[in-house]
Structures are given as structure tokens and as C-alpha cells.
Amino acid sequence: MANNQQHIILxxxxxxxxxxxxxxxxxxxxxxxxxxxxxxxxxxxxxxGIGKSTLLRTITxxxxxxxxxxxxxxxDIHSYNSFDLAKxxxxxxxxxxxxxxLSVFELVALGRQPYxxxxxNLSNTDLNQVENALKQTNIEDLKHKKCYExxxxxxxxxxxxRALAQDTDLIVLDEPTTHLDMYHKAYILKLLQKLAKDTGxxxxxxxxxxxxxxxxxxxxxxxxxNNVFSGQPCQLIEAKVFxxxxxxxxxxxxxxxxxxxxKK
Amino acid sequence: xxxxxxxxxxxxxxxxxxxxCFFANISLGSVSIPFKDTxxxxxxxxxxxxxxxxxxxxxxFPKAITAIIVGSGLGISGLLMQTLFRNPLAGPFVLGISSxxxxxxxxxxxxxxxxxxxxxALFISKWGIVIAASLGSFLxxxxxxxxxxxxxxxxxxxIIGLMFASITAxxxxxxxxxxxxxxxxQYIFWGFGSLGNLSWEDLLILSAIYIVGILLSIISIKSxxxxxxxxxxxxxxxLEIKKSRLLIIIATSLLAGTIxxxxxxxxxxxxxxxxxxxxxxxxxxHKILLPAVFLFGAIVMLVCDSIAQLPSxxxxxxxxxxxxxxxxxxxxxxxxxxxxxxx
Lengths: 264, 343
Fold this sequence. Notes:
The complex is a heterodimer of chains A (264) and B (343).
Chain A: E1 8-21, E2 24-32, E3 35-37, E4 41-46, H1 52-59, E5 67-72, E6 75-76, H2 82-86, E7 89-92, H3 104-109, H4 124-136, H5 152-165, E8 170-173, H6 182-199, E9 202-206, H7 210-216, E10 219-223, E11 228-231, H8 233-238, E12 251-254, E13 259-262
Parallel strand pairs in A: 4-9, 4-10, 7-8, 8-9
Antiparallel strand pairs in A: 1-2, 1-3, 1-5, 5-6, 10-11, 12-13
Helix pairs in contact in A: 4-5
Chain B: H1 8-27, H2 35-43, H3 50-84, H4 97-109, H5 112-115, H6 117-123, H7 126-150, H8 154-178, H9 181-192, H10 200-219, H11 221-227, H12 231-236, H13 241-263, H14 269-280, H15 286-308, H16 319-336
């Protein structure tokens, strides 16, 4: 495959994720071996509570893995200091931004923080990066608006622009399509696909939009109760991975259309 | 892009206004002194009456400087709190930080009879009061912060701040029950708030600590800006959250604690000034807000003080009453407007 020649940005080796408490280790998912390559849009799907967020939190160094290793650009993710990691990995979270008084420009410009001086002055390079990010996400006309004036769809584009301005090899988004209508769900995912191709970044997102993810992603990571599969969408359909995604009493996967249908 | 150059005019106007208020504040007072002589005494030139020079240099000038320090310091600590706690209603008074300082002062003034002896003599000095007040506000702030990490609801944090205020008020009541009448009077007078009781030596201590607090605030500007996104985003931008949070807290308790120690608890300035500032400077960037809050705080405090000393009369009203009369309506006005309060 041509993909093999692309530079691998993130790689996990025998990764187990979960929580350590006083009672001991609680493993949520184990034996995770995934690769995220340059210019690739990767979707992470699975049922509610299967551990998508835990996996994302572990990959982004918010929580520690129980076992195995995470390599970012061939280097263990834990060996990065916080500022160096911020130059390699940016996030779009589900939580709303704390201050709605930020203007779109100010918010996107905050993505440049890992590069700015002690007081946060924007250099010409920083300004260019911010302008580029605004252009790539088609929100130049929103530049002077305040966050409280934006719709959910617009706000999500702004958050993606902020991650772009951070200029990292990898962007991780936690459920970027929640609260959006059908058009904007497709719009955001299509935008991510285009950005991955144009900028050569690896983009990983978790989502419940399985049909859209099948259509748009280069690679899918599917979490089921016992296994974590990863591969091209058509390969996964052939391997009948989606059949086991949910309990079988209510919905069934239709291989021809790549969607789930309610059982009559 | 609304960058600092766009606000240059606003800053220029504010600086001029500050100078005008500063000189107006010095020329007004119970003894009427011609403006020319006020200016002369500040410049060290001879004045018509020697007593005038004494009044201006040893009374009015330090009081005006104190007003600037108090207004700007409390305003900035309010700004820091609003960003740190992600809450537009946060301020040194609301979060119980001023009460913490009061508790420290009460322990020193009223508790000296309980501790007694050499210990008391050591503590009753000005430094003792300053240290006690800063420590008191620092501890309350730490407690509020510890609770706020567990309770994410911003409304709950305010209520917890009020609860801490009641607890400290209760302890102060218990202490005053045991204190002597003289000590009680001293504490009550401190509680009225006053800008005029500072000697040059006191002012030196106050400004030294104030400058440390301001410097800490300035180096926190970048982290304050990333905190506007929320803590998780701030972390993803490479911010060392614990260190930055501690710096902001130390800055706030130094500013609010020391100011409260010297001038008594002064209400509403910390809460209202950042909001007044945001009406003029329509930005969330602390690099612009911090100096703007400094100027607004200083100006408002100078005006409040000029009103408090009731020009050409012998009365001086408690400064605390004036700031509440100015500040409370501002907060109500902000809350009743259509757009919610933002920070």
C-alpha cells in the first residue's frame, strides 16, 4: 500500500488504557496497536462507555497508560516537556471555552501560545499562521465576532482553527460533531478530511457518526468490548467488524450502504 | 484586529484623567489650599503658609498615592480572580479573601490579649498586621480554590466564598467578645476603611509589597490569557497549570491582603472595576485589560476618596460606604442588562 511510505506520526504498542484506583487496575481496553500517519483522517468509533474518551485521554497524555507505550514522532510521549508537546499535539475538546468574551481572532491566536514570548506577543509568523487557520476553516468573516455571538457550528470551526494555528503534527478532536445538525456534522468532517489532505497533519477524532466516518475517513479505529480494530473502512466492513459494535436486538449493519438500520 | 494600538487613544485619555483626578484629590480637603500652593508644595517650592506644605506633603500626598495603590491593586486582584475562577462575580470581597484578611487582623488586634505578653508585642507592629492579613487572605483563597477544584459549579464557589466569610465573621465575633473595649474600638475603626492613616513609612511597606504583587500579575498575563479557554485547553497549550495558579493566588493575596491590612476592607472595587473596564476595552486580552484596570481602579478610588472627604467641610465619611454606593449599583446595572456578565 502507498500509505506505508507515509511518515508515522503516532504509534501505540500493546497499549492498555484504564484507571488505577486503590482497589487496583481497572482495564478498559487493552492490546491497542494503532498507527496514525501523516495526512490521514482517522475516526475512532464505538458504543457509549466503551472507552473512546479514555483512549483519547491516554493518547494525548492527559492520563497515564496502564501498560504499553505511545510514540509521538518515534519518541515516547512522556519524554516531551509540556511546551514541546504543545508544539506536536493540539486538542479540540467537548467542553465549552471558559470565557465567551473572547473574540474569534483572540481565541485562534491563543493557539500560538507555545511559540510566543513570556507576555504572549504575536510575531509576524504567528499572525500569518492565525490568518491561515482562519482562511482554511472559512471563518475570516467571523474574525471580529465574540464567542457568545456564534452558533455551535461556527464555534466548532473556530476551535478547529485554533488547533490549526497551534501548528502541530497531530490534531485530536473529542466528538467534534455533537450538538450539530446533519449538514454541519457532514461539513465539519468533510473539512477535517480536506485539512488532513492539504496540511499533511494527522487528524484523529472520536464520533458517533459511523456512516459519515465510513465515507470520509482514511482509517477507522473501532472499539468493541473485547478488541480494538483498525484499518480502512472497506476492510473493516469486509471483516464484519461493525456487526459486533452494538447489541443486536435493535439495529443491524447494512453492508451495502454502510449504515445501520432499525430492525422492523 | 483590535490590538494594543487601537486602544492607544483610550489609554491616553485615561492617563490624563488619572493626573487630573490625582491633582484634584490633593487640592481638595478640609483646609482649602489654593491650587498654585498645592503644586508648589509638591515641587518643594515655598508656599504662602508653612502649614499648607505640611498638610500636602505629609497628609494629602500619601493619601492620594494610597488611593492609587488601593484602587488599582484591588481592581487587578478582582480581574485575576474572575479569570482564575471563571466567574464574572468573583472578587476579593465576594470570595471571602477580604474576610480572611480581616480575620488575620482581628487575631492580631483582638487576640493579643489571649496570646498575651511578648508574643503580642511582636505581632502588634504594622508588619505583624500586614503578615497576618496576607496570610489570612492566602489561606481563605487556598481553601476556596481547593473546594472549587472539587465543585465545578461556579455558583457553588460563590456561595462557598460567602460561607467562608460568615465563618471568619463568626470567629471575629468570638474574639471581640474576649477583647478589651480599646482593642475593639481599634478593630472597628479599621473595619470602616480609611486611606488617610498611612505614614510615609507605612506607605513604603505597602508599595513594596504592592509592586511585588503587580509584578507577579504581569508575569501571569500569558497564563491568564490561556486560562480564558479553560484549564484543559490551557494545559494542552503547554501551560504548567499548578505553578501558574499558585502565582496568580500569591499575587492576589499579596495585593488584596496587604491593602486590606493597611486601609481596612474596601468593598466592591475589586468586583466592579474589571467590569467597568470591559465596557470601554472590549477585549478579553489581559495584556490590555491589566493596565486598563490599573488606570480605572486608581481613578475611581481617587474620585471616591475626594467625595469621602467632603470638600471644604470637617467631615470625612468612611471610604467603605462610598465605594459600596458607587460599586453596588454598577453590579446591579451589569446584572440586569440583557447580555450576561462576561469575563
